Amino acid sequence: MKTKLRTTYLLTVLFFLFVTVGSMILFYNMFSEEFIIANNKKIMNSVFEDAQGMDLSSLTKSDRKRLKEFSDKGGLIAIYDGEKIIYFSGDTPERKRNIKRRRFDEKIYEYTYTPKANVSEGRTAIRLKGKIDQNVKTYYVYCSVKLRTLENSIGLISRFMLVEMIIILILGIPFSFYMAQRTVKPIEKLGKIAKEMENNKPIDFEEYNFPNNEIGHLADQIKSMYLKISSNINELNNYNYLLKTQNKELVEFDERRKKFIGMATHELKTPLAIISTQLEMMNMDNDEAMSEYYESIMEEIQKMSNLIREMLNSSFEGDLILSGPMNVGNLSELLNSMKDKYKGLFGSKNVVCKFDIEDNIYINMNSEQIEQAINNYIINAYEHIDIKGTATVTLKSKGDKAVISVYNNGSNIAEEEINNIWDGFYQTGERIKESNVGLGLYIVRNIVKNHNGICYAKNHSNGVEFIMEFNRTDKY
Predict the structure, then answer these.
(1) Predicted local confidence at residue 268, as pLDDT
(2) What domains can you pick out in the chain, each with its CATH number?
């Protein structure tokens, strides 16, 4: 059973939301307490460092404001000068007296010049106890934060995050469904267009609205492709009509040719009969009248020759040999322009295709025909090369010749077949069952012959090399 893209998208988004928020809650519950404790320790140490830079005998308004920032976050600060508490952030005088008695008078020995904030025994609070010498006087600084306050804050935040996760999931379901609809609907439209293209139906793209994003860009590309295909189909239909018309004319011409040959053959019977009869008479009577028979024979032979000539002219009347125009061209540039196309083709088969092209080699050529011949050589190598093999295309000058070579590693061609592969519709034994009809090398031979060149193949120990040679010419 196929899963719809909309359902997959919706489930994916919901799963992402659930995992993300759930992970945040789990992570917070596991590590938040230690993180908050470490953060409060850092703040306490910073407060003590700030106190070291203050004039504790006369705290300014700015100093008190800085100390109050810590108490506003739930902490308590008390500064003792050995006689009385000169600064206290607590809320009641009773608590101040309790702090003086329990934290200073009874445990003054616990204060150090290099204190560090630590969690108390029983994990009830974070405390820092330090002392500072200023103006021949020692001041004692006490900082404290109750862990119960922190735990209450952590529990409150955890509950808030749980409620937040529920809200996100509740809001995320309709939002995810909306986004799934918004994403999938244009894709469904593209599928409908593709189905209409498959059924060769006319498509009005104005009926479809696509967003201005990658899907819209894809729709524009499909539209462009559809228009090109429609144009090509129309052109093919035109060519098909012309071919049908020409084929009809060829059929009519062939019928006329057959009729003419039949009539001409019939007409040949009479002079041939006369020749036969007169030759018999020559054999029977060898006298002066022979000269007359000879003249009659020659006259009938001439008639027969004329008829045969007319038959041949008529038979070959439709045999037109078309040859494109030839100009001096740069064979090196032609081969260089073909490199990228074939490197990509061979790359799809994990095959390395190398090009070794000598510069500035010119021949008198029809560039389209030469490109077709080279293409057939390279495609032939591609079809026969081993996977992860190597093909090499070279162009070299040898004397007054331009030599193109296409080598591929793979199986050799049987020696009894190496001369037959150039024939039309010929296939080697290993490829008889394939769809290739065996015209590639036949076309190469005709193109090379039309350019006054030669082509041949050579077997090597680990592959086959196909070669074509042409007469070089000057640039101008």
Answers:
(1) 61
(2) 5-152 (3.30.450), 327-471 (3.30.565.10)
